[in-house]
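Q: Start with the shorter request: fold the first protein.
A: Done. Sequence, then structure:
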Amino acid sequence: MRPEISDDGQCFVCGKDNPKGLGIEFRSSEEGVVAEFIASAEHQGYRNIVHGGIIAALLDEASIKAASSSGITAVTAEIRLRYKNPLFINEHAIIKAKIVRERGDLIEAEAFIRRSDDSKMIARCSTKLYVQGE
């Protein structure tokens, strides 16, 4: 038996009840969702650079939040991620995501993370999300 898909506040990226999580707050925008992130040293891979897995988790969650902001419960089926530039520790970043196509039980989303000071692209992804039944 599969567990129910629901939010219990423990999500690593956005869970408000997860003391070890990132605590990211996504908000709706004209095109989808947007959030802000400032990494600390506990998020680093190489010295002073945010670990790529943290960036991947942020983009994955942003894609899911783009679907949920439209009232759709979905899970990630596929993510294609391209890293462009490093994100440094204590650097302010903006994350955005939007739905680009809906086809039956699949949704396609796009997400990116940019530095807020110079708008330099850190990473972008295209994501396929599988819509969950009611």
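Q: Next, the second protein, separately.
A: Sequence, then structure:
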Amino acid sequence: MKDKTRFTLDMTPDLRMRLKIAAARRGITMRQYSLSAIERQLEKENIKVLAAGTFNRGTVEKVRALQKSIFGRRRLSDESTELIRQAREERIKQS
């Protein structure tokens, strides 16, 4: 498992069963199905990893624009868990 990290995902029994069925229908493991689904979604959202050394003025401006679109003028806390909690609460309000 060189160059890989483990990611644990908690899910409801119903979601796990749906995942198991979907993977079985394709003859692949739940892990393979999950990774494929995540890859497809990231591609759809055009989320890519930048190679080291590719940051330039344009890249920094894009990141700042993305940050502004997500957080607006809100000052970011140093505590990442607090940021995640706030973002989750906002998504819930919007749904």
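Q: Describe the second briefly.
A: The chain is about 60% helix and 0% strand. The first helix runs from residue 13 to 26.
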